[in-house]
Amino acid sequence: MNLDHLYATQLGDLGAYTQPLEVANPELIEVNHTLREALQLPASWFTQSTITSMLFDNTSSFTKHSFAQKYGGHQFGGWNPDLGDGRGLLLGETVDKNGQRWDLHLKGAGPTPYSRFADGRAVLRSTLREYLASEALHHLGIPTSRALCLITSDELVYREKQERAAMMIRVSQSHIRFGHFEYFYHSGQTDKLERLFNYSLEHHFLSCAKQQNPHFAMLERIVQDTATMIAKWQAFGFNHGVMNTDNMSMHGITFDFGPYAFMDDFDPTFVCNHSDHHGRYAFEQQPGIGLWNLNALAHAFTPYLSIEQIKEALGKYEEQLLSEFSYLLRHRLGLYAASPSTADLINRWLDLISQDKRDYHISFRLLCEVNEHQANPQLVNHFIQREAAQRWLNQYQQALLEQNVPVEDRQNKMRGVNPQYVLRNYQAQLAIDAAEEGDFSRFKMFLQVLKQPFASKPEYADFAKAPPDWGKHMEISCSS
Ligand code: AMP
Ligand code: MG
Questions:
Q1: With DSSP H G I counted as helix, E B as strand and the rest as coil, what are the percentages for the chain, rounded to 5?
Q2: Could you tell me how far CA 287 lies from the centroid of its own chain?
Q3: Is residue 352 included in any domain, yes or no?
Q4: N or C end of the chain, less CB within 10 A?
Q5: Last residue of a domain, one of 306, 326, 346
Q6: Neighbours of ion ligand 2 (CB under 5 A)
Q7: Which atom of ligand 1 lies nearest, measured to the CA of 83?
Q8: Number of the ligand 1 atom closest to the C-alpha atom of 122
Q9: Does one domain contain both 218 and 345?
Q10: Ligand 1 atom 1: the closest Cα is on which residue?
Q11: What are the residue numbers of the active site?
Q12: Pair 184, 168 in one domain
């Protein structure tokens, strides 16, 4: 079989044809065969000898049109035109069983014309983190790029210390970022901007292309999808950490994993990124930053849309985010009808866990055990403010009684939206430490756990525990 190379062949002057640079002793460590099958990619490609020869032989399906995509981005609020894939190559596109098109993209492929003075590599540590996070988010129902396979090497690269380089092939509907449109707009390359829009409409926003105003429909779609994604981050306690516009996908999926974290003890002001000194990308700032980023993207739509039209499209963001967030939280609490009193219960529940600094995920999972016909001391005892917890519980039980859904049905439904296992940074770190010594068993096991986050299994008990103090609220380095 052959891959398509639509982006590289139709938009060849929007980036640079570049071959992956060989690494010392490449080793295929992990393949996501479920994803591979869904993408209808041959199993024979994903063996140690075939994949390494395909990646480093410049005539294979992977490399004959491998392509570095140029983009720019607003980084921490400032425009930077000098970005672009300095370490990733688009290998090609494939179509799945449902006719949906997907990019295969090699991260850590070696220098490209956009690498500036860097090595074009990704370190093992960050590659493992991206692999775990994208699979964890996907299985929680949060839109994200996916991980297809992981290749390690004995190639040494320098970050804060010497580390081993690795590569992964990731999969996403496309790798077109907000920063792509922004770059061609801000550099005045209107012809390229036009072709990027036409390409995106034709291949990725076909239903919008058929509307009376395709650009308006496309912006509106991106606004809605971004709002939905961020509502899910907030509902599941996910802090992305580097919401620069070059890390925002036009598909509204979680993209470019860096120093991300799932919440431990609930602190809405938490900042997972060690380099984010002003807390721009703090957990509670994410909804506002999402709109800021959409506004930055919208500048690139100004050749096609009036300011009124742009305001109208952006105006849909807040409502979409709030309604999705409230839908998710209601389901996490097992309350199925929207009402002011349900909204009040949700807000007071979040206040309770943040004031008492309780573990975000364990608190929600504990809620699944509440029985509206009995006292629930385990929930009350979970809190420091027991009286406040009891008052909240009384009102919650009353709401459950009025709703009149059989207890077991509700509890089972709640167990399907309140994960038992989440990607704790300290667990990721333990898996990384072992992998850096050559033992990938912990990484592989953690990956299995994260692929079934809702089903409680005794053999995975360790992964459901709250982190020890040393493992809480780890700030992660941005270097990767
Ligand atoms: P990222 O941290 O992957 O989002 O990268 C931000 C920008 O810096 C992108 O344009 C990357 O291509 C580039 N970049 C990051 N690390 C490297 C590296 N080791 N070599 C080349 N370019 C890099
Ligand atoms: Mg990035």
A1: 45, 15, 40
A2: 15
A3: yes
A4: N
A5: 326
A6: 247, 256
A7: 10
A8: 19
A9: no
A10: 256
A11: 246
A12: no
pLDDT at 161: 93
Query: What is the C-alpha separation between 166 and 130, in angstroms, rounded?
Result: 12
Take residue 100 and report the two structure tokens written for it: 């949906």
Q: Which of 58-62, 228-232, 298-302, 406-410 has the lowest mean pLDDT?
A: 58-62
Average pLDDT, the chain: 97
80 pocket-lining for ligand 1 (C-beta < 6 Å): no
Q: Whose CA is nearest to atom 18 of ligand 1?
A: 120
Report the distance separating Cα 46 and Cα 33, nearest Å.
9
- Kindly list the distances between the CA atom of residue 453 and the CA atoms of 42, 130, 134, 135, 149, in Å, as whole numbers in the listed order: 28, 17, 13, 11, 21
pLDDT of 269: 97
pLDDT at site 474: 81
Question: Percentage of the chain surpassing pLDDT 70?
Answer: 100
50 and 67 part of one domain? yes
Do 152 and 185 belong together in one domain? no
**Binning pLDDT at 50, 70 and 90, where does residue 479 land?**
confident
Verify that 341 and 459 share a domain, yes or no.
no
Contact yes or no for 220/213 (Cβ under 8 A): no
**Are 296 and 351 within one domain?**
no
Do 204 and 319 share a domain, yes or no? yes
Query: Does 98 fall in a domain?
Result: yes
Pick the residue whose CA is nearest to atom 20 on ligand 1.
Answer: 120
Q: How many structural domains does the chain have?
A: 4
Distance CA 322, CA 230 (A): 10
Domain C-terminal end among 175, 195, 216: 175
Q: Is residue 475 predicted with pLDDT exceeding 80?
A: no
For ligand 1, atom 11, name the residue with the nearest CA: 86
Structural domain containing residue 315: 179-326
pLDDT digits (tens, 9 = 90+) for 339-388: 999 999 999 999 999 999 999 999 999 999 999 999 999 999 999 999 99
> Which ligand has the nearest atom to the CA of 259?
1
17: confidence class by pLDDT, cuts 50, 70, 90: very high
Q: DSSP 3-state assignment of 138? A: helix
CA 107 to ligand 1: nearest atom: 3
CA of 239 relative to ligand 1 center, distance in Å = 20
